[in-house]
Amino acid sequence: MQYVCDAPKGKTWFRIETEGEAMHESRLMDHTVEKYFRREREKAVQSWRPERPNAIERDIGLEAHVQREMPLFLTLRDREGNALTTAMLPPGGKDRGGFRIIIVAASNADPYPQQDAAIAALGAHFGLTLDRNRCFPYGR
Q1: CA 45/CA 77 separation, integer angstroms
Q2: Is the pTM of this model over 0.90?
Q3: Could you tell me if residue 48 is inside a domain?
């Protein structure tokens, strides 16, 4: 996991970077972030167009491409490392029209009552508005 930003009350946001981390997050939080992570990673891999497709070095740059193209998967942790909230933001944390931002607590519960300040800190870090009405599944 990669550090992203601090949040109030000693909480920290981290980026989920691997399928193993996504699997672990799914188990800890009893939700399906792993499924979304796999799907989005595969879409990013499929969109890769190497400069020299027949060369032995064709996959140099693939991982950087995947990191740029796939959504950001993030986890909020407390001081003890407990998972509190999981988020999926647009690639690069940049607002893209029509992207469905997802922010959930354990078992897909609403994290906003307990984690509103931490979610706001994440939004401020990326310059995104992460109000409850915009984020799936609450903005239905």
Answers
A1: 29
A2: no
A3: no
